[in-house]
Amino acid sequence: MAFRKFLPLFDRVLVERLVAETVTKGGIMLPEKAQGKVLQATVVAVGPGSVTQKGGVQPVSVTVGEKVLLPEYGGTKVVLDNKDYFLFRDGDILGKYVD
Asked: How does strand 67-69 pair with strand 95-96?
């Protein structure tokens, strides 16, 4: 629950990347170099939103617990309680998964 101690500011979103698959469907173990970069993540904390020119607040488009698609590059790595999280701007998130 380290993310409860950390609150992103403005339109920032704190995410936890999903773990890469280490075994194929056929049961073959993949070496670390052969594993692709995981672009899916779960939102663990969000900021209040960005300030508009008129002084209002535009809320963030994702909520805690949603699964999102991240860009291949970007984000800021944050280590909380020996666990890696990534901080992205709301506009950098490519999309979210719906059921």
From this structure: antiparallel
